[in-house]
Amino acid sequence: MALLSKKDANLIKDPLADNNPITIQVLGICSALAITAELKASVVMAISVLFVLGVGNVVISLLRNIIPAKIRIIVQLVVVAALVIIVDQVLKAFAYDLSKTLSVFIGLIITNCIIMGRFEAFALGNGPWKSFLDGIGNALGYGVILVIVGFFRELLGSGTLFGMKVLGDPIAKTGLYSIGYENNGFMIIPPAALIVVGIIIWVQRSRNRALIEEA
Amino acid sequence: MAINTEKNSYTVVFAVLMVVVVGSLLAFVASGLKPMITENQRFEKQQNILYAMGVNDNEGDSDVSFVPTTEVEEAFSKYITQQLVVNGTEASEKDNAYLIEVQKELVKVKNGEEGELPLLVGEKDGEKYYIIPMYGKGLWDAIWGYISVDNNMVVKGVFFDHAGETPGLGANINQRFFMDDFKGESIMDGNTYEGIAVAKGNNDPLNNDKDDNQVDALAGATITGNGVTAMIKESLKLYKPYLQTLRTN
């Protein structure tokens, strides 16, 4: 990429693979389990976090030299919370339908440990541009996993993708269902997400053995 | 920069400034946007009420689309013929009864205090719809909705919504495959008031049996389903004396 130096590009690329916030750092698992029963919810959540983490990282980075170390966690919380509330209010006023879809995610964003983690680990020690890239990178890394998990859970659990019946109609017995295929109800409950995430971690580590921690 | 960020006095000043700045920013944003938000919520109520009486823009068999915001005011005054407040077996007209906050009134009436229970009468293709607002709790947060019945307490349509049920599970109470199941069910079992239960294992996933006071539950959303059952039962119970007077058979 000519736009970014190699170092900057790595800020985006690393969290997508070898330093993924979910599969390697095991952060943000809670929301990954809660909202991935549908692909649409996964995508919406990924975009919301992308926005909050990108902007939040820049704000924290700009303030990094004047934030008192003793209360830095509280300052970080205030920044996330204020950002999220403003976004929520603006959406309610100008894009009411969208805000209804997002409502449940707003609270989840504030508590997402990836956000606090990146503020603490990166934005407090780096300039705004680097922090912005780091925020975008981590949010994308988080989003990718969310979308993968959402894809498999919705496809196997409900036989749909984005609400569209891709495998046929389970009640009228068309498509795959006509030859005896059944939806797996287990996939739509949260433990299934844990298993899918586990499989992703397994695949990733067997492809890149350097990621396996020493016992 | 030569500020000593370790000093206690600096920490306190920073905290105070931060609270003042963020607080006023949020207050400014909230009060500036409030009129637009209230208006949006009013339109949403109208859309939901109309949806419960079958006035909507649905296409296909899984789409939930309301009357567009720009036309909802007009449609609302066209279809809703009477706005009532119910008290025991009596009902009196009240302007904008649909804006009454049902949540508070239900609690008041349950506690034996004076309260205003709104009931809307709609008319479509010569048929009458009695639309009753409902309010209850799901797994995580509030759930609410509107149910429309005819003179004989057969459900003509419902609309449910929720503040924060689990996406993909409880959140599906606002989807067609759940809401449409209620149509044709009766809230009476013979002459006794029964409500409609969201039941697991009622062996009727297609909901062909319309006399069992049951609809098929959502998999993985037991608590939300029980919440819907309780909401219907508890909300309609308060309207029972008035609804009895409407029955023609």
From TrEMBL, chain A:
It is a multi-pass membrane protein. One of its GO terms (molecular function) is oxidoreductase activity, acting on NAD(P)H, quinone or similar compound as acceptor. It is found in: Cell membrane; Endomembrane system. One of its GO terms (cellular component) is endomembrane system. It is an enzyme of class 7 (translocase). Belongs to the NqrDE/RnfAE family. Composed of six subunits; NqrA, NqrB, NqrC, NqrD, NqrE and NqrF. NQR complex catalyzes the reduction of ubiquinone-1 to ubiquinol by two successive reactions, coupled with the transport of Na(+) ions from the cytoplasm to the periplasm. NqrA to NqrE are probably involved in the second step, the conversion of ubisemiquinone to ubiquinol. This is Na(+)-translocating NADH-quinone reductase subunit D. The gene is nqrD.
TrEMBL record, chain B:
It catalyses: a ubiquinone + n Na(+)(in) + NADH + H(+) = a ubiquinol + n Na(+)(out) + NAD(+). GO terms for biological process: sodium ion transport. GO terms for molecular function: FMN binding; oxidoreductase activity, acting on NAD(P)H, quinone or similar compound as acceptor. The modification FMN phosphoryl threonine is found at T222. Residues 138-239 form the FMN-binding domain. Keywords: Cell inner membrane, Cell membrane, Flavoprotein, FMN, Ion transport, Membrane, NAD, Phosphoprotein, Sodium, Sodium transport, Translocase, Transmembrane, Transmembrane helix, Transport, Ubiquinone. It is a single-pass membrane protein. Its EC number is 7.2.1.1. The keyword Phosphoprotein applies. GO terms for cellular component: plasma membrane. It is found in: Cell membrane. The chain crosses the membrane at residues 12-33. PANTHER family: NA(+)-TRANSLOCATING NADH-QUINONE REDUCTASE SUBUNIT C. Composed of six subunits; NqrA, NqrB, NqrC, NqrD, NqrE and NqrF. NQR complex catalyzes the reduction of ubiquinone-1 to ubiquinol by two successive reactions, coupled with the transport of Na(+) ions from the cytoplasm to the periplasm. NqrA to NqrE are probably involved in the second step, the conversion of ubisemiquinone to ubiquinol. This is Na(+)-translocating NADH-quinone reductase subunit C. It comes from Flagellimonas chongwuensis. The lineage of its organism: Bacteria, Pseudomonadati, Bacteroidota, Flavobacteriia, Flavobacteriales.
